Amino acid sequence: MTADGKISAIDPKAPRHSDAADKAHVKYQISLADLILIGSGTIRAEGKMSTIQDPEVLAARSVRGQSPQPIICVVSRSLDLSADLPFFQQDIERWIFTTRTGLERSPDASALQKLANVVELGDTDINWDHAYTLMSEKGINKIVALGGGSLSAALIQAGRIDDWWLTIWPVIYGGHNVPTPVEGEGYLPAQAPQLRLIETRQIESELFLHYRTLK
Ligand SMILES: NC(=O)c1ccc[n+]([C@@H]2O[C@H](COP(=O)([O-])OP(=O)(O)OC[C@H]3O[C@@H](n4cnc5c(N)ncnc54)[C@H](OP(=O)(O)O)[C@@H]3O)[C@@H](O)[C@H]2O)c1
User: Fold this and answer.
1) Tens digits of per-residue pLDDT, 17-66?
2) Apex CA 8: angle with CA 52 and CA 118, to 5°?
3) How many domains are contained in the chain?
4) Each residue of 152-169: pLDDT tens digit?
5) What are the backbone angles phi and psi of residue 187, rounded to the nearest 5°?
6) Does 119 reside within a domain?
7) What is the pTM of this model?
């Protein structure tokens, strides 16, 4: 996020110029994952996912018994996703977590079912207990959630975040309606999830913070 707490600019499709250290950090986190969770708002804004190309990282995944690329799982209540997104042409295993309502109402449901493993996990909202049971049954243990703010809010609410990485970019984006790392309904202080800071790193003007959720 920016120094003023934003995760995108007023134009969500505008490219973010994260620097080499942050890109390497995100790539490293992604390289550990069996599955990446990503909100549909992010895939609509960004169009596609970056894939792992580094031969050393690919070799490390192979040694750990992981597929070359993690599964990319888009979370969408409405299934309002265009089958024309470049994401659906990428050479990766794609999943979509959605709802019964989404499957019934989305005009693109059958096209999307040909392009991804579309999993219904609730009537109008995702049942995260079912989602995590399903992933565990498939041997998926390391899950990295890349945001955006609405998905992160849902996962925090469901008690599914163990470790929380925050990079603070030395820039200010501003904007009333620009998403922040955690959206959703918010918490009163007495109910707010508590974190413990376990690691910090500064690279030039950028700050990398690693928190663990207190259970
Ligand atoms: N700076 C960063 O590191 C970073 C990281 C990620 C994203 N971003 C930016 O953040 C922006 C998107 O953030 P956002 O908060 O607007 O969107 P988001 O979290 O990416 O996606 C929101 C959508 O995800 C689905 N969703 C979320 N929680 C759900 C739940 N519990 N059950 C079912 N579906 C659920 C809904 O999909 P439907 O609407 O399809 O029903 C919801 O509208 C983009 O501009 C992106 O570029 C920045």
Assistant:
1) 778 999 999 999 999 999 999 999 999 999 999 999 999 999 999 999 99
2) 55
3) 1
4) 999 999 999 999 999 999
5) -130, 150
6) yes
7) 0.96
> Is 125 a pocket residue for ligand 1 (Cβ < 6 Å)?
yes
Whether a cis peptide bond, with omega within 30° of 0, leads into 139 is: no
On whether residue 13 sits in a domain, the answer given is no
Task: Supply the range of the domain harboring residue 98.
Answer: 20-213
Q: Hey, what amino acid is at 75? A: V
Residue that has been written with the tokens 């499957």 in this structure: 103
User: Residue 207 sits in a domain of what CATH number?
Assistant: 3.40.430.10
81 located within any domain = yes
Strand partners, 98: 120
Residue type, 175: G
| Ligand 1 centroid to residue 150 C-alpha, Å | 5
Pocket test for ligand 1, best of 2, 8, 164 (most atoms within 8 A of CB): 8
Q: Does ligand 1 have an atom closer than 6 angstroms to the CB of 135?
A: no
> What CA–CA distance (Å, rounded) separates 154 from 166?
17
Asked whether 75 lines ligand 1 (CB < 6 A), one says yes
54 with 60: CB under 8 angstroms?
Answer: no
Task: Give CA 85 to chain center in angstroms.
Answer: 17
Question: Nearest 5°: CA angle at 195, between 74 and 186?
Answer: 60
Q: Which ranges of the chain would DSSP assign to H, the alpha helix?
A: 20-31, 40-46, 55-63, 100-105, 109-115, 128-137, 149-157
Whether the bond between 148 and the residue before it is cis, its omega within 30 degrees of 0, is: yes
Is residue 50 assigned to a domain? Answer: yes
